[in-house]
Every structure is written in structure tokens, then in C-alpha cells.
Amino acid sequence: MLWALAFLPIFLSITWLYALHSASSAPSGLNITLLIAHPDDEAMFFAPTLLALAPHNNIHVLCLSTGDADGLGSIRQQELKESCKLLGIDDVDVIDDPELPDSMGVTWPADKIGSILDKYAGKAGVVLTFDQGGVSGHVNHRSLYHGAKEWTKKGGKRLWNLETLGLVRKYGFTMDAFVAPAQAASGMRFVSGMEGVRKAQRAMTDAHKSQMRWFRWGWIGLSRYMVVNDVKEISV
Ligand SMILES: [Zn+2]
Question: What separation in Å is there between the alpha carbon of 186 and the centre of ligand 1?
């Protein structure tokens, strides 16, 4: 058993290198709105994508709540801006609207999401957001998929979704690199190197300080979403 543990760092290094080798080249020259539900979604889920895209595209982060479930909304808005700066993004809007509460029990109305996109994302050619699984399954995340899908369809925009993985792959860092099929032509895989993973971790530990409870350490140390993102363009 011990020999297996000793082998783990070597195995992870090999799979990480393999994942880096399978990464897509980043598109460039696009106006992209990242649509998120809560401050910290950008760092916990989308960091590899943002780090790959930010140097070559105009990225705007649109967060549809202040993350006020625990009464920390005003702190968390500021944390989001600091986190985005660490990830190379200055253009950030945070919405504070009673129809869009930070709540596991409230599905956000698609037409409301559409009206906010009308107001804040008119310049966007691409909307990037969660897929229908919402990565963590949070109902606010899943609402974004439906709202963005309707809006992009109506406005002739492109829709990119971050793929939701099962539990084992979610916490498996790069361990699925050999078995996960390469993304199809419609898909993109963004992979961070050591420096990118450290940046994403710092976005959590140094910016989103109010969210660094004990269980987050497991996520920032082990999650595949801190190092690899699979993003698919959805035909709407
Ligand atoms: Zn969230």
C-alpha cells in the first residue's frame, strides 16, 4: 500500500504533463462575458479557462449575486474584484437584486437573467457559464445555463459551457488525463501549469478570505477544476 502512495506524486506529475500536452490553444480577439452566480465561482471553477483566455481576449465577469447567503455580500463583492485582478481581469460587475438571491432553494428566472445580460453584456460575442449540471449542482448555477441559453439564442450570441464532472473526476486533480477522451471539435480544454494553479489557489486564499473554511482546502488542493477545464460550445 505504501509503495502506491510513494508512486502517487510521480503519477500525478505524469498525468499533469499529459493534460498540458492535450490542452487547446486559446482563441483570441473575442469579447467574452463570464456569467457566474456567486463571488468565488470564477476562482473555484473557471480559473484555468480565465488564465488561458485573459491575455488574448476581452473578458468581462458578470456575477448575478453578491453571495449574501451568510450576510457577507458587501465583503464578497470586494473579494471578487481582488480575485479577478489576480486572474488578470479588471472588468467586473456584481448584481444585487432581490429576485436573484444567493440560495440553494431558489431557481432564478431565465427572463430576469436575460434582462441583466441585455443591460450588461451587450458587447459580448460569447457568454461563458456553467452547463446544466452547474458543476456543484447548485440551483443558482444551473439557472444561469437556462437563462444564458435563451438569451444567446435570441441575440445570436455564442454560448460556452463548463462541463460538469462526476465526483471522482471532480476531486481527482489530473488523474483522469489518460482516460478522459480528448474534447471533440466543438470543445476546448484549458490546462494550467504550476504557476496557473498557484494563481488560482491564491485567488481563493488571498482574495476570497471569507470563504476559506476547512472544506475549501480539499477543493483547492485536489479539484480538477483548479487545473483543467473542459468547455464546450453549445449550439443554441
Ligand atoms: Zn457558486
Answer: 25
Torsion on CA atoms 32, 62, 119, 105, rounded to nearest 10: 130
pLDDT digits (tens, 9 = 90+) for 109-124: 999 999 999 999 999 9
Domains and CATH numbers, the chain: 2-234 (3.40.50.10320)
Going from the Cα of 38 to the center of ligand 1, the distance in angstroms, rounded, reads 5
| 144 φψ region: left (φ > 0), alpha (ψ -120 to 50), beta (else) | alpha
CA of 191 to the centre of ligand 1 (A): 21
Residue 60 · residue 128 · CB < 8 Å: no
Task: Dump pLDDT digits (tens) for 52-65.
Answer: 999 999 999 999 99
Is the Cβ–Cβ distance between 38 and 65 less than 8 Å? yes
Span from the CA of 82 to the centroid of ligand 1 (angstroms): 17
Neighbouring CB atoms inside 10 A of 70's CB total 11
